[in-house]
Amino acid sequence: AALQALKRKKRYEKQLSQIDGTLSTIEFQREALENSHTNTEVLKNMGYAAQAMKKVHENMDLNKIDDLMQDITEQQDVAQEISDAISNRAAFGDEFDEDELMAELEELEQEELNKGMRDIRLPSVPSTSLPSRPGKLLACHFTLLLINGKRAEDEDEMKQLAAWAS
């Protein structure tokens, strides 16, 4: 009886293995059918999309699209220029050349210096004739000029002149 039970067990295991294999095959075929159906639906929808795109593109001309894109680019450039012009601070006085401004400033300074030189009062030239020894008389004359309220511009120049005269 034990031997019969063991044979039955082996037979059932074999049947179970066959049934499991059959179920696996059926499951595989079911998945393959689902995938085929999904692929068919995807392909059909892609066909519809291609037809719809073809219909939409019938009225489009590539040259018109290029012209439109160029117009858009030009308008974006104009908008950028306007934006740049608005965002930049007002450049009042910035358009002058710095070298020209420096030359004009030097010219004005020179004019001011010349005007200042015209206002300088120089001492009057003595009307008496010079003696044979001019050194002492010249020193006396400069002393008199200082006493009378006249100023000499530079003491070094007076010393050099006195040294030259003696």
From TrEMBL:
Keywords: Coiled coil, Cytoplasm, Endosome, Membrane, Protein transport, Transport
Chief site of localization: cytoplasm
A Gene Ontology term for the protein's cellular component: cytosol
Pfam families, per database record: Snf7
InterPro entries: Snf7_fam (IPR005024)
Species of provenance: Colius striatus
UniProt-recorded name of the protein: Charged multivesicular body protein 4c
Domain of life per record: Eukaryota
Membrane topology label: Peripheral membrane protein
Any GO BP annotation: vesicle budding from membrane
Record lineage: Eukaryota, Metazoa, Chordata, Craniata, Vertebrata
Places the protein is found: Cytoplasm, Cytosol; Late endosome membrane
Family: Belongs to the SNF7 family.
Keyword Coiled coil attributed: yes
Gene3D superfamilies (UniProt xref): 6.10.250.1710, ESAT-6-like
